[in-house]
């Protein structure tokens, strides 16, 4: 693997946690391995590994973008990641308020529903 892949995997583990990454790696097949390598190098090894903004800020941006574009499948994963990135519940609701104004109330509303469910599950797991 490349240095970018190794950096990406380290950042991915630091952000999402070992358990999540271990599950994802265990589910990887020959079919999706090229895709997994690409996102590990590109998303995690380049974008998430950049020191130009903080992990907290990157977390808020990611959640807002996922919600604004209606890509709700990954919202819960990134809400869980806030435990590692330092983005607070207040940060998340502020990001989703921006989504409501700039991308639409229904998308923000759905993301808020997912965030509430995910935070409740996280609390129950403690």
Automatic annotation (TrEMBL):
NCBIfam families: decarb_PcaC
Signal sequence coordinates: none
SUPFAM superfamilies per the UniProt record, alphabetical: AhpD-like
Gene3D superfamilies xrefs: AhpD-like
Protein name per Swiss-Prot or TrEMBL: 4-carboxymuconolactone decarboxylase
Annotated GO MF terms: peroxiredoxin activity
Domain called Carboxymuconolactone decarboxylase-like: residue spans: 35-117
Listed InterPro entries: 4CMD/NDH-1_regulator (IPR052512), AhpD-like (IPR029032), CMD-like (IPR003779), Decarb_PcaC (IPR012788)
